[in-house]
Design brief:
The chain has about 300 residues and is α+β, with helices and mostly antiparallel strands. The protein has helices spanning about 5-20, 50-55, 75-80, 105-110, 200, 245-250, 255, and strands at about 30, 60-65, 70-75, 90-95, 95-100, 115-120, 120-125, 135-140, 145-150, 155-160, 165, 175-180, 195, 205, 270.
Length: about 300
């Protein structure tokens, strides 16, 4: 991150922190009502509290100059080379879409809710309240191309003083690529291509966009059908969802989350931040300052 960008974003956060919540609604605020169905808005304030018991033993909560209130995993538990949706996990396929199965005890929260971003030399998690099997973007090549790629979806909002604020800059994320034959292998990140070595593959692929996108306010990402990649799921022995994964799904709906102690959905305000300059990133989707995990 450049010094100029860091300073400007720190000013944005500082100004927002000094602004009282009781101010009259302006053009820079949007009211977010309770969703009509059995669901939570991604910016529901319960994202800041419902997951704390599960995360507190494994990391720390901080006020980041760029991303507001964030949670960071303990580096002694994840190691210096940690990368979301790459380190210590594998892909499963359930209910018609991809599910990231994390090996971390806290992973059932942070890989199904919220977003990840690279800031000040470490990965930070921005809380969110909408569930997905994995909040990632996908890349594919032409028919017969051997690799499929994914990267953490960048955050659209941050939390400042307990209030959600739209993010005023684009956060580029690093790509991981695996061959179709290894996509569902255990510990896929250990034999995938990532870091600077992924740049040539990025240039040979394109974003995967589902043919019929959802009309939800915060559409969940969907990966390419396995058949499109030449994968026959009937020939694979995919694991059943663990108790933690089942709990993650239960917390996604108020009807099943509240009996587990979660808060009900709440109407709230989404505040808009002034748009800052684009982030400082390197070639091929590798954020500058991010440790290269180039493999192969």
């Amino acid at each position: 991150m450049s010094a100029t960008r860091g300073a400007s974003l720190a000013v944005v956060v500082a100004v927002a922190l000094s602004t009282t919540r009781a101010r009259a609604q302006t053009d820079f605020e949007q009211s977010v009502p309770v969703p009509p169905g059995d669901e939570y808005a991604d910016t529901d304030p319960s994202a800041l509290s419902d997951f704390r018991p599960a995360l507190d033993p494994y990391g720390t909560w901080q006020d980041d100059a760029s991303y507001g209130t964030v949670w960071t995993p303990d580096p002694t538990l994840v190691g210096a080379g940690f990368q979301p949706y790459d380190t210590a996990g594998s892909w499963d396929f359930a209910d018609g879409d991809y599910v990231w199965l994390s090996d971390y005890a806290w992973g059932w929260v942070c890989f199904h809710y919220g977003r990840w971003a690279w800031s000040a030399g470490r990965w930070v998690w921005i809380p969110g309240r909408d569930y997905a099997g994995a909040w990632v973007s996908w890349r594919v090549g032409d028919d017969g191309f051997g690799y499929v790629g994914w990267a953490p979806m960048p955050p659209d909002w941050i939390w400042v003083g307990g209030v959600a604020m739209t993010l005023g800059f684009a956060s580029q994320e690093p790509w991981t690529f695996a061959t179709s034959g290894e996509l569902f292998s255990p510990g896929v990140g250990g034999h995938a291509v990532s870091g600077n070595r992924a740049a040539p593959i990025v240039n040979q692929t394109r974003p995967y966009v589902r043919a019929q996108p959802t009309v939800a306010a915060t559409p969940a990402p969907h990966g390419p059908p396995p058949s499109m990649l030449g994968i026959d799921l009937a020939r694979l022995s995919l694991p059943a969802l663990s108790a933690r994964e089942v709990r993650a799904r239960q917390l996604s709906r108020p009807s099943t989350a509240q009996p587990l102690g979660a808060h009900p959905p709440a109407a709230h305000v989404l505040r808009a931040a002034p748009r800052a300059g684009a982030g400082a990133h390197g070639f091929g989707g590798q954020a500058r300052g991010m440790p290269s995990r180039g493999r192969r």
